[in-house]
Amino acid sequence: MCSSLIESLRESRLYLVTDQELSKGRTTTSVVEEALQGGVDIVQLREYSMTDWELFKVAQEVRLLTKRHNALFIVNNRPDIAKLVNADGVHLGQDDLPVEEARKILGPGKIIGISTHEMAQAQKALADGADYIGVGPVYPTQTKKNVVPPVTLSYVKQVAQWKEAPPYFAIGGIKQHNAAEVLDAGARRLAVVTAIVGASDVKQAVTEFKQILGKYPLKG
To answer: Which fold has domain 2-213?
Structure first.
């Protein structure tokens, strides 16, 4: 199980992070379904405004959808809910549970990702046993309440040149018009929030990102 999940992670290119508040009145579940139809590889359920009960119910729905579409399902900062719905893993921020503690809750064979904003954090995440890292925010973003200053393309370039780097996803303010800049800096995987969940046509937005990614082959 573990090896197949990690293999799927390594092959993944486009990572959707949900936010119902930015979804133009649509439910998270409906947005996820359209995005999966477009071909996103990973869905992270990240909903700050939901109650635990709401989050649990939506997580159950998204788990069913991701299974149907052969996509990975990650829950943000809630290893308990990830375990309850048999998600593929959890994503942690710098101030969330340590990797080791999250693994105790999730059990073996699950994916754990960490948000990083500088090389020291990236190196620590790898040493702690993270399976992938988020690299960002690359550009200014308002999707989080406590906004981290943009790391700019320079951090993307640093990670791209890091030989020991785990799979990493550039994130933060990435849209169709600037995605190529991020990929030119060395990234080969993108995590997107607003440009997908806030799009008038979610499936089309995903298709556009996949077309851009298709011009940059995944490195070994």
So the answer is: TIM Barrel (3.20.20)
